[in-house]
Batch of 2 targets.
Target 1
Amino acid sequence: MQYGMIIDIDKCVGCHACTIACKAEWEVPAEFGRNWVYRLGPANTSAGMSYTYYPGLCNHCDEPPCVDVCPADTVNMTMKDAKTGKTVTMEVAATWKDPFNGTVQIDKERCIGCGACRDACPYGARYINEDLADDESDGKADKCTYCMPRVAEGLAPSCVQTCLAGARIFGDLDDPESEVSQYVKKGAVALTSPAVQIGSNGRYYSSKKADMELLMQSAPQEMPEASLRRIMLAKMSQPALKQIKELGLIGLAGGLFVKSLKQDKE
Amino acid sequence: MHSTESQAPKLETELSTEASLLSEIYGFLALAMRYPDSSFLDGQFLDAYEALLQSLEWKEEYADMQKWRSQTGDFLNDLQIEYTQLFINASPGTTIPPYASVYMDGDRSIQGKTTEKIKDFYRSCGYEVTSSTEPPDHIQHELEFLAALAGENRREEETLFLHSLFRPWFIRFLKHSIQEARHPFYRVSIQLIDFFTKEEQ
Amino acid sequence: MAIHLSRRNFLKTASIAAASVPLSKVVAKAETGVAKAPLVPPGSFKDTDTVVGGVCEMCFWRCQLVGKVRDGRLVKIEGNPKSIDNGASICARGNAGVKLLYDPDRLKYPMKNVGKRGAPKWQRITWDEALDTCATKLKNVIDEHGPESLAIFPHGASASYPFHFFEHTVGTPNVSEASFFQCRGIRDMAYMATIEQPPGENVDMPNTKVIFLLGGHFGENVHVSHLKRYLKGLENGAKLVVVDPRFSASAAKADIWVPIRPGTDTAMLLAIMNYLIQNDKYAADFVDEYGEGFEEFAEGIKEWTLEKAAAECDIPVAQIKEVADLLAANMPNVAIHPGRHVSWYGNDFQRQRALACLTGVLGAFGVKGAFVPPKGPKGLKKVSWPHGDHDPDLLSDYADNSHDFSPPGTPTDLIRDAAITGKPYPIKGCVIWGQNPIQTIPNQEKTIKMLEQMDFVMCTDVMPTDITMYADILLPECSYLERYDYIKTGTQWNFADEHQQYIAPRMPLVDPEFERKDGIWITNELAKRMGYGEFIPTKDQVEMVNTRLAGVGLSIDKIRAEDGIHIQPGKDPYGISEDMTVIFYNEDLEDAGYPPIPTYIPVERAPQGYMRLLYGRSPVHTFNRTQNNAWLMAAMDSTPVWLNDKVASKLGFKEGDTVSLENQDGVKSRTTATVKVTPGIREDAVYIYHGFGSINPELTIGHNKGIDDTSLITKLAVDPETGCHGMRNNFVKLVKVS
């Protein structure tokens, strides 16, 4: 299964409730967000004037560049399929893509707060939560989890529950009968560009050409530089990576990240 | 002439005397951080305050206090206005809310997740804030809690609390209060709190 | 500071006389270990209690809520899933209620101002001292000048009880409610004068064929069940017509956007009606049966040809015709929205009358998709202060224009003028309860003058605001999350669904902190001290709500057991009552010297070099009330100045330029904002959000953010029939700030 989210722009009225409900649910510091609403326009498009919204969140991508760049020590982690109970054991760093539900998750306890994953995301979906600083870090990476802890309890994601317009539809993209899949058939698309094709599972639908045209201008036009380098590194085989780690090269890289994080703060 | 047998109990007595004195000081500072009223903030209290400064040899601060006391017509009224300005609602200027969560939780909130943590810590040590109009992470209550821990000579928990739940926010509070606290009583009180909660080098 | 000793050494050597301190507030319990707290917040659903009975008041739509409470701390607010109104949904502001509740800048204790009005210095005092002072000072004013010398400025659910005390029992008629005199009072009075009932927003949008909005900017203006109706209508295929000088959130979803010249709406409405009547495209049968004075009306608006209106409104003839034909083709199933905040140009009563008449011309009452008031529950008991035997001396009796169609209370400017001039009688005491007259009433200088001459000013509020700076005594009130008061009633949001009614009394989700008190307690304590103890109608907030509920056989406990909302079978709202009348020609208006048929009164146009200042809602704010909310301000903390793209290039402004605004009277905004260059606004107007630019430095977050539109509304416009303010008759130019 692959969880995904559709935003129906025809229905969205730009009320921003989704962003605040998320802040409340996960106690996100005011200046950051696990999701966002950007107001676009009013602006002229080839199809007339548009005034619309870009409600964004982590796209839980098929090929998430944020996962490969994580320099935290890997561990063997056993994941379980919530439906079948099937398990699989994977070697993961502090962030990974769940093989059963397709969501991208973070282990805050093991996150070192270096910011590499934040920098790698072309959508800007991650941030470093400085409230979660501990002895080992200046904070922890944080982002949308598709509210998996809520979903596990049979609840809708917080943003979906509060949406007065019913503009956010959450479900399994692998299930052709699901509402999200119906939307994909109807033409819901991801915010992609020639350079950014990483299998976004967040998609947008609008029947208005003008609104879609304006919204698509928000699609990221390039992959962040750091992540290109990181993707190359990730292409190296795991054993090779391990050897390098033992040589301490990654440790050096970690130091560089800490430095860049500090520079960012300034 | 000290035998090893007598040395150990003596050190223990020394430490426990120390702890009980520290407890009294924490308690005293907690009072200084409480909204002043005539039930406790009287001439005797200020005498004790000055005595503390003298014994610490904080000469400048002692002089500032004395100067204020000699000039003021109504010290309680002075302190009430000053306390309200600093910690409740300031105008003009800004308040420095004396709550841990305001400094720790990223979005300036009373009753934040830090408040929850602090309340849990109190509880885990067997304490609860009761019959107070203030949240449990008010500096007054944190100092009262430290006084209670010191009074029971629970050094490990005291250090852990200071390190994890007091100093991290107090440092930020201190920074703001140095800018805002003009009145010697509150400026010096906050410096005293800093002195007595700072980790030893 | 010279530190001579380390703490350790000090403790070893010190022998001081530090007072031994009783740790009375800290109670020892059993000892346990210390556990490490988890890094990630557990989520609002873990280890929390769901507390029912919340009724929101981040705005005044009053959605029903539940609270997720962990160990006494409100972690999250959600819509009550049992609600047949908002359901589990709430808006951004509703979600951010937690941040109001726990705002460190909130008022916590009663305080007295030991500084000056407007430049306060606060001293925390006891409730006894605060109430004694208020009672003595107010009593002195009454004894010296009579009860009329008290001016009351209330707002919000909790203000009703105290203002009724002052109005009914003490006996001052000088009450100015912002929700009437600066908001929807004109609408209610105009509809009263046309269809004999206030209209609410009672149009059946889910089941309509056309939604017609005049200035309504739904999406930027957010009321949950109202938006659900609107969106359902659009989903069901309704056509949307939006008349607005700005390409608003609603205009963006519209089939027809009419970028009308500001202030000319009535001309357009008259032309539509005239066209429909002349071309026999109106609901003749309905008008015959329910209309009054239709012939005189039809005759009187004859001059309003499409061409004349088009020229006046600066829109194409074809567009007015298109709108008129669309309405005619779909009548009577059309929703002519009455609006809400309609205090615009000082000619607003006439426009609102025209809207009501248009609804009549289309026969759009009582049928699917038309004007259909819900049939909500009846029978709640009233609890209020008894009327005294004092016969109040009304300011309107002395005025040149007595504003005969004024909403309840006294027009704001009659009060301010009397206070400033002392004529016809002095106004020397002021009670402000939940209202922020600095931000609600145009011409701030006048408001301040009024306050400065008072003998006594008392404010009750939840937050410090610009007006609280003028209080002598400032009282901290419980928020809507910590008190009982309002009983919200209504029906299911979509009339196409099973007919149901609901009763949802507001119940606290958490206990009040600090020394905050509810309005019933404060008022009763004040009344006792002022010598009105024998008239107190209810002992406390719980008793009041229970007494009211007893009228329908319910109680707080019963409703709490029903998850906070009582739901019962409802009634079909469709149909027209036999005594329905649409008064096209109103003789009472004529007798009072006002136009008896809806009449277009032109307003001044922007002078050379200036543009009309329009304001509206930010989707995440409720006026000035949410201006210190950490989450909402993080979402939107300024007032981008909407400037037409052509004007921008002509005047040399770019997107993001920092500007201040200066009005026709030379009044400059105290603060700045950035320019938003867009084709989505007319060339003769600029637009900003209302409610920003707070002066009060006690608002750590909201202070000086964005531009205060009210500060620029210095030229007053007063609607003649109602005495309500029109607030869109001021003009500004942009001044670049380097």
Target 2
Amino acid sequence: MSPFSIPKAVTRTAIALFVLWAASFALSYVHLGAASLLVALAIAALKAALVVMFFMELVGEGLSMKLTLAAAGGLLAVLVGLMVADVATREPPPLLPPTTREAHAPPR
Amino acid sequence: MQFSRACATGVAHNTKYLGTLNTGVLLLSSALAAIAVHALRDGHARLAARLVGGTVALGLAFLAVKAVEYGEHFDEGIYPGGVGRYFVEHRARGLSEFWTLYYGMTALHALHVTIGVVVLGVLAIRIVRGRLGREVAYRLEIGALYWHLVDVVWIFLWPLFYLA
């Protein structure tokens, strides 16, 4: 039996994942303000894409399989996006109905 | 935004090093699982069994670190649902929601890690006993796919609860 050698794609993916892991950790000490979460999530998305494409071997699958996963990911993004938009626009909490807003207004 | 402020406070208070260590542990375990699938396909059953065993060991290490992490939070009086002395001393709006989400999502993830450890453990034993070889390597492939999915979920939980 021929000796086993690790496929290059797996080795390169593993190295890339650990580089991104270290980069994400290092960037958490850089003050990026409101962009810090977006940057961290963008790196996470890149890492997830690497795992899905090369560890889960989606790269070798047909277009139908890729589209199925993209649709599922897109739906998840829409649901999470709507939830974030809901929370982000609730200011000042809690929302009061218009009829009771005046009753709760601070005295002038 | 009060929720984002509370979220930042919660993240700053979280056990960043333990969360980061656990991310590295899961990434390494995923790499071992991916290599194990290739090894079994090539007929190197003994090597595949060792690699799957390594994945299981790393999964158990992840759960151990998670237990230490929860223990530290309990010592500080942080419990789900805004219960504990931490929430008496820190009254900012949204902190209770942050920590409840933290416990809910990480505990659900840990439950899936536990399931993965059991599944991969059974597969490793079957490889060692010669009941899972290169002809049916797809069975290990399915177990590894599940493990990678658990890894992908943690890849997003890590920045949300420990970094940003």
